[in-house]
């Protein structure tokens, strides 16, 4: 990523005061609630609209490394997150005869980047963030049916026939984003939507995920080790890989990935726009019960020790969209980049989006459409190259658990990879460590310094200048970012009401 002009051409070091824009956020997944918390700290007006009556963050563990922990230190959440986490020091990979076929080391993270990689149950992390967002600002059980936007503002209409007005609409509603679908229909009518953005989300895997109850007894004494127990098993002659992480409170977060053939992709395609119910999870759970695990366990034992409501079956789609915004609407997280979970960068990328978008909106000089488009362009200009890197890293890490002949070669190569090459891979993944511009900057403690990035340079500049919130607004935009294909005024459109699997939504 090329180094931008000095704070995108601005010479002022006066920290801006928060924008007066009203932001409507659709989606209360991880990306949506992190963005809301950042708006709360920045003093930006917002509301969240979530179609679920209660967000149950289904899934397994989430890894929070140096690339996001500096942000959570800024927010005062780092200690609580670490109190519920285990550090990853190493990982081991086995075949289904439980023969060791590979290992990776993560113990250098603290020294090189200032933080270890923290493994925390997704549900606990979500609760830590969500409870800091005022309850009255999240409208649960509120499905958005349609949206309108023009030069003056945005309006959404919800299932109860209520209308809500704002200056900006953020689509943080997951891989099957209704906001994205509506925006894309509008742009397609104008003939400005890239052909690739019209294509369906591709997927080659389905996944069964869950988190056990607290596990007691001598059989589970291996969970007492201070660091995270992180293993994966790659089957030789069946299309499955299964992964385990241990947590601070003696639970196991687990995931079984089914690698689909072309025929099985077609068979699963009918579920693309609908949620799998518990029956589908039950069927897959029965198929994988006998899969062996180290410590004299089987997947069936872990499934039996997992509450049924915490087991879900999801598709693992992968797609990087070209169009991230149009008019007064902007996308975030899975709505604009859906990644394979192998590298643990899906939620992290959504958090990065929230950091950069919140910083850009904080410094808005006005709610005029031209200023919004400059801010959205700068947001995409910083995030898109990093999303490409994360997307490619996720695909590469996915090859370590997939099963074609090329994946066997990849595993063989990485098994004998020199440490310095592995560290270079990690350096690339962990060097992007953005912080928000409107909170005191946390000094970076890593020996491998962060890569140059616009948002971090802004944070350094504004923190150096002080934090006088009463100072005049300074607009900071990147002159090197190409304009969006979107035009200014966008016609009304009805958002798609098709349901989508919410478990992996950012």
TrEMBL record:
It comes from the Eukaryota. The keyword Hydrolase does not apply. The keyword Lipid metabolism does not apply. The chain crosses the membrane at residues 21-39. InterPro entries: FAD-bd, FAD/NAD-bd_sf, FAD_mOase_fung. Residues 21-188, 310-387 form the FAD-binding domain. Residues 487-506 are annotated as: Disordered. Keywords: FAD, Flavoprotein, Membrane, Oxidoreductase, Transmembrane, Transmembrane helix. GO terms for molecular function: FAD binding; monooxygenase activity. Belongs to the paxM FAD-dependent monooxygenase family. PANTHER family: FAD-BINDING DOMAIN-CONTAINING PROTEIN-RELATED, FAD-DEPENDENT MONOOXYGENASE ASQG-RELATED. This is FAD-binding domain-containing protein. It comes from Dissophora globulifera.
